[in-house]
Here is the input.
Amino acid sequence: MKEKAEQLGVFGGTFNPVHHGHLILAREAMERLKLDRLLLIPNYRSPLREGEVLAPAADRLAMLRLAVGDEPGLSVSELEVRRAGPSYTVETLEALKSMYPEAELTFLCGADSLNTLDRWVRIERILELARICVLSRPGTEADAAHAALIRRAPGVGNAVQVLSMTRMIDLSATEIRERAAAGQSIRWLVPESVRDYMHAQKLFV
Ligand code: ATP
Here is the structure.
């Protein structure tokens, strides 16, 4: 009998820095979508956010590693950081497909991505390589943004699945960076290990 294909999730982002929103959603998405494994992949540079000043990739990677620790099923991938340059999701998914030819890939992103997905490079190929699952997020009316995407690009909009999360977590890396820069506490917004790392490396101050 043929074995069931491995369900491999991919969660990309700048993770500048990783926060509890990412982690709580990662776990819920894994459970709801029955993923066997989830790779968190920090990008080197986001093609749609050129000019953005990011903490060094090595630091963003280190913070993700500290946050994930030895959590079963979750791991951190250096794929995009090692490739450097703008991190195109299509290239990452092509690489994962050749590394794990038997796996079925699911790409996760937050609802804000509904506003840009139709502009992602080679989105049609992305949709051949992976199912895209969009996670609801405060600040974006997911149903309205999804309907707008379907109107702009029906092939893309109809192919993506919107997952309404049990917990809407109103937290962003932008807020973490702003709080750190203002000398405000970020305790409990990010894992303690990440907070310690940020302090030790004087990130975002
Ligand atoms: P920034 O504030 O710098 O834009 P961010 O908090 O959105 O950062 P990213 O690293 O860009 O974090 O996020 C990676 C992915 O996780 C993106 O697809 C983003 O939409 C999603 N995401 C981040 N935070 C949340 C959240 N609180 N709820 C739902 N999705 C989220």
The chain has one domain: 7-169. Residues 13-16, 21-22, 25, 109-110, 112-113, 135, 137, 169, 171-174 surround adenosine-5'-triphosphate (CB under 6 Å). Residues 7-169 form a domain with the Rossmann fold fold (CATH 3.40.50.620). Residues 20-32 form the longest helix (13 residues).
